[in-house]
Structure to design on (382 residues):
C-alpha cells in the first residue's frame, strides 16, 4: 500500500490510508505500508521558490514539488524498487500520480480526483504547461492500471468513458470509530442547543466569511445569538469582528485522544452542518456530521448530488452566495422541529452503508476476480 504520507497516522489524506490499511488487516490481509510522501528537505525550498514565482507573476498554477520532475523520478524509483522486492504482492497506490513501472507489474490505483479534473473544476481552466506534464503521467498510470478505484461517483463515470469497466466505485466512507444511536435524547439535545457547525481549513475560508455575514442577519432581533462552532480555522484567520457565540477550535487531530474526543463531542452536539462553499463543502466532514444525525446546509455540488440525490431530504441546498438567503434557510430549519428531525434521521440513514468493512469487502472481492483467489491467498500467506 503506497500512500502520500504515513498510513499509520490517522491525519494522512483525510484519514483514508489509516482506515483502509487497518480494515484490510482486520479482514486477514498482510499490509506492507510504503510512504511515498515528498522528501521535506527537497520539498520546502522547491515550494518556497514556486510560491515566490506565483506571487511575482500572479500565476494560479497548482504545480509544486509533489508534481515536479525530481519527485516524479524519486517516487517512481521507490515504487519500482518495492515492486521488484515483492513481485507476488498486490500493489495498491492511493494516488493517480504514480504506478507505471518498467517491469509492467500489475497495480491498482485509488484516489479521489485527477489533476486534470481538479484544474478544470476548481480553477475553471485548462491545465498549464507544467500541469500538462503531470496530466500525461496520470493518463499513463490510469491506462496501465489493472483497476482504478474512485472515491466519488461523478469522477468514476468520467474515468469509465476512457478506461471502461476497470473503473470501480464502492461508495464513500465515514472515517470515524464512533457510532451514533440517534436516540430521542440526542435529537432532543441538538434541538434544544441549536449549535451550528462549520468544518473546513484555509481553502474554505470564504465559506466561513459568508456564514458569519449570514449569522449577523439571522441574529438581528433574536433574544440570543445562534451559537457556531468552527473547526479547522482559528480566530486569527478571520480579520475584523465576528458575531457573538462563535467559538473557534482550530485544527483537531484525530490522532490525539483529547482532540478526537472534542471533535466527536462537537459532531454529537451539532444541530446543522453549514459549509456554503459553492464547489465543494468538505465532503468527508459532512458525512461524519450526517453520521451523527446532523442535516447539512450546503450548495448542491456535483459529487454530493450524485452520491445522495437531488432531493433536500438531508438538509437544504443553497442556490446563491447571498448571505440573506443563507440566513433565511437557517431560520426556516431553526423554527421547524418536525422538518429538522426528519432531515436529521435521513442524514444518518444516508451514510449508514458507508462503512470501511463494506468498502474493503467489495475491494477484496474485486481483487479475487482481478488476480485470482489463489494468487491473493498466496500473497497474503507470504
Amino acid at each position: 500500500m503506497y500512500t502520500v504520507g504515513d498510513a499509520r497516522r490517522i491525519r494522512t489524506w483525510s484519514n483514508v490510508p489509516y482506515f483502509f490499511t487497518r480494515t484490510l488487516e482486520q479482514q486477514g490481509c498482510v499490509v506492507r505500508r510504503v510512504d511515498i510522501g515528498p522528501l521535506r528537505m527537497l520539498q520546502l525550498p522547491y515550494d518556497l521558490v514556486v510560491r515566490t514565482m506565483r506571487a511575482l507573476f500572479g500565476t494560479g498554477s497548482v504545480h509544486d514539488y509533489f508534481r515536479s520532475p525530481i519527485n516524479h523520478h524519486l517516487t517512481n524509483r521507490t515504487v519500482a524498487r518495492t515492486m521488484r522486492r515483492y513481485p507476488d504482492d498486490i500493489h495498491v497506490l492511493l494516488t493517480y500520480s504514480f504506478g507505471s513501472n518498467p517491469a509492467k507489474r500489475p497495480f491498482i490505483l485509488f484516489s479521489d480526483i485527477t489533476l486534470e479534473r481538479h484544474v478544470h473544476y476548481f480553477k475553471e481552466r485548462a491545465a498549464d504547461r507544467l500541469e500538462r506534464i503531470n496530466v500525461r503521467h496520470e493518463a499513463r498510470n490510469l491506462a496501465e492500471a489493472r483497476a482504478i478505484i474512485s472515491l466519488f461517483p461523478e469522477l468514476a463515470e468520467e474515468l469509465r468513458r476512457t478506461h471502461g469497466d476497470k473503473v470501480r466505485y464502492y461508495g464513500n466512507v465515514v472515517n470515524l470509530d464512533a457510532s451514533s444511536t440517534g436516540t430521542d435524547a440526542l435529537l432532543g439535545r441538538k434541538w434544544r442547543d441549536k449549535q451550528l457547525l462549520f468544518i473546513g481549513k484555509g481553502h474554505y475560508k470564504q465559506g466561513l466569511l459568508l456564514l458569519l455575514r449570514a449569522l449577523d442577519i439571522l441574529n438581528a432581533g433574536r433574544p440570543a445569538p445562534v451559537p457556531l462552532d468552527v473547526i479547522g480555522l482559528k480566530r486569527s484567520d478571520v480579520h475584523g469582528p465576528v458575531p457573538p457565540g462563535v467559538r473557534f477550535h482550530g485544527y483537531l487531530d484525530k490522532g490525539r485522544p483529547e482532540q478526537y474526543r472534542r471533535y466527536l463531542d462537537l459532531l454529537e452536539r451539532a444541530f446543522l452542518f453549514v459549509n456554503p462553499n459553492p464547489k465543494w463543502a468538505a465532503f468527508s466532514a459532512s458525512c461524519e456530521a450526517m453520521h451523527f444525525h446532523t442535516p447539512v446546509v450546503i450548495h448542491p455540488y456535483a459529487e454530493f448530488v450524485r452520491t445522495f440525490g437531488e432531493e433536500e431530504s438531508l438538509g437544504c441546498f443553497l442556490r446563491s452566495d447571498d448571505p440573506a438567503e443563507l440566513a433565511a434557510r437557517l431560520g426556516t430549519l431553526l423554527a421547524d422541529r418536525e422538518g429538522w428531525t426528519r432531515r436529521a434521521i435521513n442524514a444518518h440513514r444516508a451514510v449508514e452503508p458507508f462503512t470501511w468493512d463494506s468498502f474493503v469487502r467489495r475491494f477484496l472481492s474485486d481483487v479475487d476476480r482481478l488476480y485470482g483467489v489463489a494468487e491473493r491467498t498466496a500473497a497474503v500467506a507470504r
About this structure: The mean pLDDT is 94. Residues 40-57 form the longest helix (18 residues). Residues 273 and 296 are 5 Å apart (CA to CA).
